[in-house]
Amino acid sequence: MNISDELKYRKLEQAQPGEFEQLQEKAKGCPWRQSYHIQASAGLLNDPNGFTFYQGEYHLFYQWFPLGTFHGMKYWYHMKSSDLVHWEDVGVGIEPGDPQDSHGAYSGSGIVKDDKLYLMYTGNTRDEQGERHPFQNLAVMDSTGKIKKRSRPVIKAVPKGYTEHYRDPKIWFSGGKYFCVIGAQRANETGCAVLYSSSDLEAWDFEGEIATSLGDFGYMWECPDYFEMDQQGVLLFSPQGISPEGDHYRNIYQSGYIVGKPLDTERRSFVHGSFQELDRGFDFYAQQTTAAPDGRRILVAWMGLPDTNYPTDSNGWANCLTLPREITLREGKMIQQPVRELQMLRKQEVKFESTLQDEVNTFEGFSGTSYELICEFSGANAERFGIEFRTGETEKTVLLYDRVEKEVILDRSESGQPVATEYGTERRCSLDADNIKFQLFVDSSSVEIFVNDGEEVFTSRIFPSMNSTGIRFFAQGGSAACKATVWSI
Ligand code: FRU
After folding, report:
1. Mainly localized where (predicted)?
2. Is 377 left (phi over 0), alpha (psi -120 to 50) or beta?
């Protein structure tokens, strides 16, 4: 789709009378509206931004273009919650359109200082020739919730050796100093992350590039994030331009992390292990983490991908955020679990128990489009066993464990309306285990699957008909004991 700059960089007030309300109306009538995920009332949502705990509440913003389902003039839209489950719609957080963010308030992060919430973000600007000039800006929210943008960028120039793809500052505080990582592209068009430091969040010094052993790893790293946990350093980012390798890197763009010794901020060297994908599903990108007051590290991501059309586009809205996940490290690997607060969503509970012997067994006691399902398989000698969900006359989404290949497989080829099929309709991930636990969060148009308590996660949009509400359990080539509990949400 070729959209003129005039259409792309329109602000809300430049809409035709009633245009935005019409989009909202259209979105409202869409059967794929989510029931418990953060989504925009209309337009396009992408990255989570500014995720911070401030004055007793989690503040979470998202990238938002209100006037279409393409990537246009980006706003920060503001949500807040005291429990990570029930979110209050606060409204627009950062409005773009000033000289420092003339073409969009792009992604960034938050940190609390002097009882205020500091938000640092990339101001996307373009000059008359259409060339990009990214600025790193500040906006400050006070205790009344008022957000004031600073009119002058805190980082104005892109240092020599890097292109105009320079964005998404993520701030942290360590050893009496503030640091931020920014996603960058070197002049030779390879991706990396750079480091800045500051004593006050206002004046920033360019420290240099974070030296990793990844070499040429894609052409751009978006949305970097850094934190420390269990005396280890974790650098997360979303690299673009990584080619598929076996079951890996199957989506248009990737998201993952490297774990190592804490970052040496003096030398900017990061000694780390190999790059690992965060999620094995179809739709996951641009994650951001924050620290909860009790010390947990919580991650939220965009349940979608850039440069991808979704079936809801024609209904005036696109995308949603993932559920918040608690992350921990186990032997250098990130374990992701749905935050325990999500149990508050559980309503009616129904159980299922059976030993499946070469059969497909319909879960008679439950059907729906919005639920949590925990299913444990044990004692299997079957070649394959698993779950078919959102099943209807002609539709099903299949999640299975292949004991022969030792792989978890998610198949959305028959899920309903297709998405990005040029990138395949199946995702696979190796896992060597005797017992398999699948925890699924199903919403009207998505599924988040936590395998064996978060050892692997598959996050995906699916677009079935609203009549596809069934659940079936199956075993092929032998038997498997299956014990499941489902809660409607
Ligand atoms: C990632 C991204 C960021 C950018 C934002 C713009 O999805 O491209 O790099 O800041 O989205 O919306």
Report:
1. cytoplasm
2. beta
Distance 361 CA to ligand 1 centre (A): 44
C-alpha–C-alpha distance, residues 364 and 204, integer Å:
61
Sequence length of the chain is: 489
Distance 216 CA to ligand 1 centre (A): 21
Q: Smallest Cα–Cα separation from 95: which of 139, 153, 46? A: 139
Sign of the alpha-carbon dihedral angle for 168, 173, 178, 184: negative
CB-ligand 1 contact for 223 (6 Å cutoff): yes
Summarised one tens digit per residue, pLDDT across range 32-46 is 999 999 999 999 999
With a 6 Å cutoff on the Cβ, whether 103 touches ligand 1 is no
- Alpha-carbon distance of 133 to 427, in angstroms, equals 37
> DSSP secondary-structure letter at 14?
G
CA separation for the pair 326, 112 (Å, rounded): 21
**Ligand 1 in contact with 185 (CB < 6 A)?**
no
Atom number of ligand 1 nearest to Cα 223: 9
Residue 372's nearest CA partner among 401, 340, 400, 396 is 340
**ipTM above 0.90?**
yes
| Atom number of ligand 1 nearest to Cα 108 | 10
**Residue nearest ligand 1's atom 9 by CA:** 222
Domains and CATH numbers, the chain: 5-338 (2.115.10.20), 346-488 (2.60.120.560)
pLDDT at 1 over 60: no
pLDDT value at residue 266:
95
| Alpha carbon distance 301, 291 (integer Å) | 15
The string over 248-277, giving b where at least 16 C-beta atoms fall within 10 Å of a residue's C-beta and e elsewhere, is bbbbebbbbbbbbeebebeebebebeebeb
User: Tokens in use for 88?
Assistant: 């209050």
